[in-house]
């Protein structure tokens, strides 16, 4: 750059230095300042002592595009805005410094949670009523004590009527969980759709069973009509099929919602 200034017999502008030597604005500015401090006079280059070697100045805008302005004062458009675009690295520095700091949530703070103990009271009352209704309906339709392991353990007797409340109501709760599970649970759309309709059906079936039992008890019926008996006898098989199908759908990969 010293030889170029001597050839021009004048100080080159910062933009000229940037264009000819392919450096950024800070480096060009530092080189010109170093030459001036060394006492170099481009109008009389022979009278100037040898200039020491200039050291490279770190620059964030090495690849900045120079402006067409003839001097360094024209690098701005008069409004204080530079017409020399900075490099991507230079743009990141002020952006990061001026970006607003988002508030950090206190990890120790907890959201207020709705107490769950009232649900235990509700579930206890529903359990007594539902259990009694299904067991009573099962006895009216032929369910009753059976030897579960005949010839092996004859004393092991169980009332098969308990299979109705366990199967129907437990499946309804399981289907409701799959229906209302959060997105992070990974339940596919198909599984949610099946769970929604089967949960509604199981709850409606449970309500219908309670109605049928109480109506027959109020009417003094000791044995349920055959259509009700046939339908109730099929419930364990239907519940098993719905539960297995829903479990397979939940574990099958699919698009979540």
Automatic annotation (TrEMBL):
Region (Disordered): 61-110
Composition skew (Low complexity), residue ranges: 83-107
Coiled coil: none
UniProt entry keywords in alphabetical sequence: Membrane, Transmembrane, Transmembrane helix
Transmembrane segments: 117-137, 157-182, 194-216, 228-250
Entry protein name: ABC transporter permease
Originating organism: Pseudonocardia adelaidensis
